[in-house]
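User: tokens in, sequence out, please.
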């Protein structure tokens, strides 16, 4: 199954900041917890269960795509690849 992530809404970014996450300056020890938080916002429980069975590197790619789309650093053509 392919996963189409989406950018986070402003209120979602603010909620993550309130929990101590700064996507522009993320500490390595926060990555897994932030991934869980973002996946809960973006994907269905069924999709999350499937993501949990994937390699970490695949999930990191998806997380990085969501963060890049949220920050506006991905062009529409890049998002397709």
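Assistant: Sequence out:
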């Amino acid at each position: 199954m392919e996963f189409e992530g989406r950018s986070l809404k402003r209120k979602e970014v603010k909620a993550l900041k309130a929990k101590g996450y700064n996507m522009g300056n993320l500490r390595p020890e926060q990555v897994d917890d932030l991934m869980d938080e973002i996946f809960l916002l973006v994907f269905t429980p069924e999709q999350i269960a499937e993501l949990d069975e994937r390699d970490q590197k695949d999930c990191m790619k998806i997380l990085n795509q969501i963060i890049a789309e949220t920050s506006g650093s991905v062009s529409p053509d890049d998002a397709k690849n």
